[in-house]
Design a protein that fits this description.
By secondary structure, this protein is of the alpha/beta class. The chain has two domains: about 5-220, Spore Coat Polysaccharide Biosynthesis Protein SpsA, Chain A; about 225-320, no CATH class. The chain is about 35% helix and about 25% strand. It has helices at about 1-25, 55-65, 80-90, 105-115, 140-145, 225-240, 250-260, 265-280, 285-290, 300; strands spanning about 45-50, 70-75, 95-100, 120-125, 130, 155-165, 170, 175-185, 190-195, 200-205, 210-215, 220, 285, 305-310, 315-320. The strands form four sheets. Strands 1, 2, 3, 4, 5, 6, 8, 11 and 12 form a nine-stranded mixed sheet that branches. A two-stranded antiparallel ribbon has the order 7-13. The longest helix has 24 residues, at about 1-25. The termini are far apart.
């Protein structure tokens, strides 16, 4: 008990020292110890996509309300993603730039599109993020806040978001609100790397001041076909597997897992079985706690793409509603 308390205080002290040290070093650009940011004021959004047809149009339109440019890196989509991007290009014109690089891994693709940006501030956006574009939690307030930071220094802000899962009306209780998205001052010293558990993440130089923006201005809409969600779950498991080196590619890992844990069933058969268990923990979206949905999501509340299936009060899986427009182009 005593040892545990001591470890807790030691960890808190180390964290405080690191935070104070970073705050001091963040003045290095003012002292000319490192070059100051030299890009024009503005906000660039970078988006990595691969088979993101479900929410892509809604997502891009929501960030277009505040981004001065949007750089999309397509990692080899085979669904309607390229078609949707072509339609959005007609709408947004030069503000939308699409780079198709299917041969790159996600880390290298992220660094590539970061380097294609032109403005001082960069927000890492995902194709299933949908921003609030009206009201007191509008993403326009986030833009105003980051533009108020000293332009002669470097910043990285972790951004809070609300997560939906399975359908628009449910959440995971342990991740209903998260703060792992980020917006940062561009420099060629900030690079994406694989962290110790295999996720791609920014390696933030010591002279960046790290902040938090706790107002949730956007939603992570993890509402997709069960097959897609199942593959995403297995991909994350693959990244975290300490024996990942045994598998030359994800496909080999996938084949092994399906054989060992789903009795050799194919993905289309295993995915609903996985969902029946994975969705059981979901709880209804708490509008009193988290507020209203983004304006661009509200049309889908009356005509949702997917709904969770209940039986005797228990979630059994997900059903796709055939009348829904899965392209999101009509939103």
């Amino acid at each position: 008990m005593r040892d545990g308390i001591l470890r807790h205080y030691a960890s808190a002290l180390r964290s405080k020292i690191a935070s104070t040290s970073r705050a001091v070093i963040s003045w290095a650009p003012i002292l000319r110890a490192v070059p100051r940011p030299d890009r024009p004021q503005g906000l660039s959004a970078v988006v990595r996509v691969k088979d993101e047809e479900t929410w892509l149009a809604v997502s891009i339109r929501s960030i277009a309300t505040v981004a001065d440019e949007i750089i999309v890196g397509d990692n080899g989509s085979t669904d309607r993603t390229p078609e949707i991007l072509t339609e959005l290009k007609k709408e947004l014109q030069d503000r939308l730039i699409v780079v198709r690089r299917p041969e790159l891994d996600i880390k290298d693709l992220t660094n590539l599109i970061n380097d294609r940006t032109r403005f001082r501030l960069v927000i890492r956006w995902d194709a299933d993020f949908v921003a609030r574009t009206d009201g007191p939690q509008s993403i326009s307030h986030l833009r105003k806040w980051v533009f108020g930071l000293d332009p002669q220094r470097y910043w990285c802000a972790h951004l809070r978001m609300i997560e939906l899962c399975g359908d628009l009306f449910h959440q995971r209780p342990i991740s209903a609100s998260r703060a792992d998205a980020h917006c940062f001052t561009y420099s060629d010293s900030l690079r994406y790397v694989y962290d110790r558990v295999g996720h791609d993440a920014p390696k933030i130089p010591r002279w960046y001041r790290v902040l938090k923006y706790e107002i949730p201005t956007f939603f992570h809409v993890d509402v997709k076909p069960v097959r897609r969600m199942f593959l995403s779950y297995l991909w994350k498991r693959y990244l975290l597997d300490p024996d990942r080196g045994r598998y030359p590619r994800f496909e080999a890992y996938l084949e092994t897992i399906l054989k060992e844990q789903w009795e050799g069933e194919g993905i289309d058969q295993a995915a609903p079985s996985w969902a029946a268990t994975a969705f059981r923990e979901l709880v209804p979206y708490d509008r009193n706690r988290f507020g209203d949905y983004p304006m661009l999501l509200r049309p889908f509340l009356d005509k949702p793409l997917y709904r969770l299936r209940y039986e005797h009060g228990q979630i059994l899986g997900q059903q796709k509603l055939e009348t829904a427009d899965i392209s999101g182009l009509g939103a």
